[in-house]
């Protein structure tokens, strides 16, 4: 049985009520174009999608993106910094805090309508105060319409990458969409997901039959895998990246070969400081192989103002979900990526 609780207005109504101002829309459009150029190989810059595991409160996220915006002025010739403002949080067992979209106050009950307004306000303020537009995870495809005008990058998570609706909706998105390998780690399955997202599709979406033209900027994200015994197995190493490269080459149909390395999750076994070592190893491999360098387009890094995590929102700017790098380490790492890009 479904208990009706709050009626949610359509995305069109919400976007009219909380529009992105035209000057900020122009900023977002410019960053969106640069990010697409990186995936398409028209730019040698690297994407760095960096920020907290989940954006649970506006104030620390805004302080974080302000710092990132200042740092961007020092690295923008080499890097495209995209703040992670992830407002939907997947849960392995399906219960627990599910992100600002569902719970604008993590200590209180779900209020999705309030959450939609909260995340639109957060994204708009973040662009205004940092000059950067953000990435988010498309955990629920039907929610994407409420933020589609605000983002520069979309991620499809490991648990969602084999889901048909995620693949179909990705085919209609005009942003770079990073599709993570499934938790089992299959590269062919990941490439099949990219193929589906790059292909024209017809399907039902928001009470309409819709047709899409395919998203040629859909690409692979390697986030590590989990074996049958629950062990985390990394897949950021040279051999796996080149397996993806070969898969792109032999397919003959996939466009814009691209890999983004997720430095956390099963690649780091959620040992957050290992992200530094992982990024450094990938940067080193880029110096030895032209094909490796050509296909690796950037990194995902989990980072916040304070390192680690906490169960409840007590320390300002500390994750309440997965542990993150602190700001000082993040700044050093980003400067190092820029130097070696």
Keywords:
341 residues; two-stranded antiparallel ribbon; single chain; alpha/beta; TIM Barrel
Oligomer: single chain
The CATH superfamily is identified as: Aldolase class I
CATH domain fold name: TIM Barrel
| Share of helix, binned | 25-40%
Structural class: alpha/beta
The largest sheet, given as strand count, sense and whether it forms a barrel, is: 8 strands, parallel
How many domains, in number, for the residues? 1
Nearest-integer average pLDDT: 95
Count of runs of 4 or more consecutive helical residues: 10
Tell me which CATH architecture applies here. Answer: Alpha-Beta Barrel
CATH class: Alpha Beta
Radius of gyration: 19 Å
Strand-residue fraction?
15-25%
**Spatial gap, N to C terminus:** 54 Å
Which spans of ≥5 residues are poorly predicted at pLDDT below 50?
A: none
Along the chain, the helix and strand elements come as HHEHEHEEHEHEEEEEHEHHEEEH
Can you tell me about this structure?
It is a single chain. The chain has 341 residues and is of the alpha/beta class. Helices cover 38% and strands 18% of the residues. The chain has helices at residues 11-17, 22-39, 58-75, 112-130, 164-170, 187-198, 238-251, 274-286, 290-295, 327-340, and strands at residues 46-51, 79-83, 134-137, 151-156, 177-180, 201-205, 208-212, 218-222, 225-226, 232-233, 259-262, 296-302, 306-309, 318-319. It has a single domain (18-340), classed as TIM Barrel (Alpha-Beta Barrel). Helix 5 (164-170) packs across helix 6. The strands form 4 sheets. The chain has an 8-stranded parallel sheet. A two-stranded antiparallel sheet has the order 6-7.
């Amino acid at each position: 049985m479904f208990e009706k609780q709050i009626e949610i207005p359509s995305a069109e109504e919400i976007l009219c009520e909380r529009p992105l101002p035209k000057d900020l829309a122009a900023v977002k459009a410019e960053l969106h174009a640069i990010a697409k150029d990186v995936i398409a190989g028209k730019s040698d810059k690297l994407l760095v999608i960096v920020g907290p595991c989940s954006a649970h409160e506006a104030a620390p996220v805004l302080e974080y993106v302000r710092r990132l915006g200042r740092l961007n002025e020092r690295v923008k010739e080499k890097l495209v910094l995209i703040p992670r403002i992830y407002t939907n949080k997947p849960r392995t067992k399906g219960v627990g805090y599910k992100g600002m979209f569902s719970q604008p106050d993590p200590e209180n009950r779900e209020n999705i309508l309030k959450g939609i307004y909260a995340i639109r306000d957060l994204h708009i303020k973040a662009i205004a105060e940092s000059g950067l537009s953000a990435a988010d995870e498309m955990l629920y495809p039907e929610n994407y319409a409420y933020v589609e005008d605000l983002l520069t990058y979309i991620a499809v998570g490991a648990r969602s990458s084999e889901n048909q609706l995620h693949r179909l909706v990705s085919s209609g998105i005009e942003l770079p969409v990073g599709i993570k390998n499934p938790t089992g780690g299959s590269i062919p399955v990941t490439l099949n997901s990219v193929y589906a997202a790059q292909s024209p599709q017809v399907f039902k979406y928001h009470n309409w039959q819709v047709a899409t033209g395919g998203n040629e900027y859909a690409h692979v994200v390697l986030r590590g895998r989990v074996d049958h015994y629950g062990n985390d197995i990394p897949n950021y190493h040279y051999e796996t990246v080149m397996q993806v490269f070969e898969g792109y080459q032999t397919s003959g149909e996939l466009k814009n070969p691209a890999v983004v390395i997720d430095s956390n999750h099963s690649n780091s076994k959620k040992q957050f400081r290992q992200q530094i070592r992982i990024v450094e190893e990938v940067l080193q491999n880029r110096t030895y192989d032209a094909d490796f360098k050509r296909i690796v387009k950037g990194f995902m890094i989990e980072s916040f103002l304070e390192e680690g995590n906490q169960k409840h929102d007590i320390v300002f700017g500390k994750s309440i979900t997965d542990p993150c790098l602190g700001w000082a380490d993040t700044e050093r790492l980003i400067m190092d990526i820029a130097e070696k890009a």
